[in-house]
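Protein modeling request. Please complete all fields; requests missing the sequence field cannot be processed.
Requester role: graduate student
Desired output: 3D structure, token encoding
Chains: 1
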Amino acid sequence: MPCVSTCGEGTRLPRSFAAVIAVVTEAYEREASAAVAEEEARPSAWQVSARALRAPLRRDIAWGRFAG
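Delivered output (68 residues):
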């Protein structure tokens, strides 16, 4: 036995559903066309925490017990 839901007249419910779907669809399309993603102005967390490359070792400076 199918479950049928009506509000007074049997044809009013499908018309109401169609009207609601049309209004919601139009509102969704308007919102989707106006939605614009913001450009990323801040550096990412990786860029903030990344360290620069280390300077090469200076071989002309003696260090530690190998100073000679």
